[in-house]
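Structure tokens please, single chain.
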Amino acid sequence: MDNKKNFFIIIIIFFITGLITGIQFKQQPSKTDIITMKNIYERKQAIENEKLEIEKLRSTIEHLDEKLEKYNASDYNVDEVIISLQSELEKIKILIGEKDLEGPGIRIYMKDSDKYVQGQNINNFIIHNSDVLEVINDLKAAGAESIAINGSQIVWNSQIDCNGATIKVDDKIYAPPFIIEAIGDPDQLEAALNSPNSIVQLMKIWNIQVHITKVDNIKIKKRESAPQYKFLKIAEEGES
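Here you go.
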């Protein structure tokens, strides 16, 4: 394979890596006949999360432009390219959950309220998948580098769905209490969740039990299985 083809493959690899890095968790709007303050807050947070995603994608584009400039240079070093690719491969393995991870961070304990107020909407006193998703988005916005729910590592294509009184994380079902662990700057992560506009503070208004603990070294296990793709394949060179 000539140098031109090698260069083309390198650019494609970096492009895919950049796109994967730019992916964030998304939630489909849930259908409900009842509009509550909690629903309004969640919609507002969803808009803010979309804005964060746009900014992250812009940053990814700038990152790709820098790589294009580097590898367009006529004097690029093959050894440097190999080292760079190996580094990118390790990042991809982390993104898809193929690595055991550890580092400082926080642990969040969440449990349904045990103080239901007569006449109030019962849904405000229990934890929903949307609440868990909002906590994860707040952690990611605060710089969390890895997150797990009840021991299950969350990766770029993880799904968090409602499953009656429980939640379904990918193919596993969990009942309260939920324990979310996040690796990152403990002070920064804790501050984000304790900010006045965070979902955690809203849950506390409804007496949902939320306890945050700083941890010196959190360990997050790799996923039991790698993502499986039924329809995705790498396009052959020359395909349109």
